[in-house]
Amino acid sequence: MCLAVPSKIVKIDGQKATVDVYGARREVNLMLLPEEAGIGDYVLVHAGFAMQRVDRESAEESLRLISRLVNGQEEEP
Predict the structure, then answer these.
(1) How far is CA 52 from the centre of its chain?
(2) Res. 60 pLDDT band, cuts 50 70 90
(3) Rg (CA), the chain
(4) Domains within the chain, CATH numbers bracketed
């Protein structure tokens, strides 16, 4: 199973972007992104490629759920 992780764009240089997820920064390729994305936007990243832009609310909720799963916490009641 593959998991695309929502990541926030903090820098763009042509077809490359630097994204932040949980405080870690990495470079991703924007070539496969079907729409424009800008600094501050959230994108789903898989295998080093931004695959889809997502709204901030959805991205933050997904990050909260992933964090809870990784930390072995139960869902909120």
Answers:
(1) 9
(2) very high
(3) 13
(4) 5-70 (2.30.30.140)
By DSSP bridging, strand 49-54 and strand 5-13 are unpaired
- Residue 23's H or E segment, with its range, is none
Task: Say which residues have a Cβ less than 8 Å from residue 57's Cβ, sequence separation at least 6.
Answer: none
Q: How far is residue 1's CA from residue 62's CA, in Å, rounded to a whole number?
A: 17
CA distance 65 to 30: 25
- The two tokens of residue 10 are 């903090």
Residue 66 above 90 pLDDT?
A: no
> CA–CA separation, 73 vs 77, rounded Å?
12
